[in-house]
Every structure is written in C-alpha cells, then in structure tokens.
C-alpha cells in the first residue's frame, strides 16, 4: 500500500480484505488521519448490510418468478 493509496483502503479495511501488512499500515495511518477515521465510521455498517443482502438473496423464502 503506497502513501497515496491509503485513503482508498478505507473500504478494503472495513470489508476485511487487506492482508496483515496492509492492515497494520492502515491502522498506523488511522492514528494521524481524521479523514480516514471519519470514512471508516461512516462505512462501519457496510459489511453487515452486505451480509444481510447476501442472506436475503439466498433465503429459501424468496420466491422465483
């Protein structure tokens, strides 16, 4: 992860798709970056919402046309 891409990794971090080294680097970056902390707070519900959409799309109650 380069310094210029750190701001773009907020979503990847929130979704848990960064490797261990990138997680550590991003967490260090969060200490000094209010913008990324704010974006992370705003996106903290996204993984749960995506899980709910996924669960709903495979739900046996869902009828097919």
Describe this structure in words.
The protein has helices at 10-15, 20-32, 34-43, 46-57. With 65 residues, it is an all-alpha fold.
The N- and C-terminal alpha carbons lie at a distance of: 45 Å
Summed up, the helix count is: 4
Note the overall shape: elongated
Task: Average the pLDDT over all residues and give the rounded result.
Answer: 79
Radius of gyration over all CA atoms, rounded: 16 Å
Largest sheet: none
Order of helices and strands: HHHH
- Give the low-confidence spans: none
Domain Putative zinc-finger: 11-37
InterPro entries: Anti_sigma_zinc_sf, Znf_put
Organism: Planotetraspora phitsanulokensis
Keywords: Transcription, Transcription regulation
Helix/strand layout:
Elements: H1 10-15, H2 20-32, H3 34-43, H4 46-57
Any key phrases for this structure?
65 residues, mainly alpha, 63% helix
Summarize the structure.
The protein is mostly helical. The protein is about 65% helix and about 0% strand.
């Amino acid at each position: 992860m380069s310094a210029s891409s750190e701001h773009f990794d907020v979503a990847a971090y929130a979704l848990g798709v960064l490797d261990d080294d990138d997680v550590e680097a991003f967490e260090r970056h969060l200490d000094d970056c209010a913008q990324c902390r704010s974006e992370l707070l705003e996106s903290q519900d996204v993984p749960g919402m995506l899980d709910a959409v996924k669960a709903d799309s495979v739900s046996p109650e869902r009828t097919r046309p």
